Amino acid sequence: MTVKRQSLLREASHQTVAGGSAGLVEICLMHPLDVVKTRILGFYKGILPPILAETPKRAVKFLTFEQYKKILSYASLPSGVIFTVAGLGSGLTEAVVVNPFEVVKVSLQAQRNSFSEQPSTFAYASEMIRTQGFGLQGLNKGLTATLGRHGVFNMIYFGFYFNVKNMIPVNEDPAMEFLRKLGIGLLSGTIASCVNIPFDVAKSRIQGPQPKPGVIKYRTCFSTIKTIYREEGFFALYKGLVPKIMRLGPGGAVMLLVYEYSFAWLQENF
Length: 270
What we know:
The chain is mostly helical and about 270 residues long. The chain has helices at about 1-35, 50-75, 80-110, 120-130, 145-165, 175-205, 220-230, 240-270.
């Protein structure tokens, strides 16, 4: 029993480190795309906060995906269903973990133009907890939209990648095999971004500043999507799609590749 527990902990630690490495590499490679919109030089300015936030988030994403996949394997389900449902579970778990951080981040970003001096992230979060609490009106505002965003993304991201990868034969040439995985990963991130963006738009509206101060117009996920569709049209639900695809298409491919190769290396060497 002790040996089995040690084996499980070893595997989980490998998954956590590999997932964190995937997030770290993805941020380092893709961060300039977030910066190039406003400046040409200093591509890596401000990269530390995203690294500190995204590295553990990606570790949670991949660790929980692997654990859900292992649990579902006992149910004798088809592998395609296992990958998809494990991805959904991973996304929902990730959403619960990251939503408070998203609320604080979006709130601070909204204040950027109205205050010359901002409070620290910790100070702002503490003040929000004191005045608004942990609930859906406070630090967990927009949780349903975040669940939809991450749940749908990871369901398609993992489900598409592993199902399609298993359908296309492995290439014996390492370079071609790398390109095979890269292409499937790119498609995975792109398709997932296209499908989940209405939840992303709703999340931004709910967690961001309301149109009229003191009046909450955007309160719940699906009512927000309905309001946007009715007042602004279908394409308003896809605002920001192009930069999102540019970021998460290649970024998603990088994460999957780094995770797979680093996990395999850890399994062989530790």
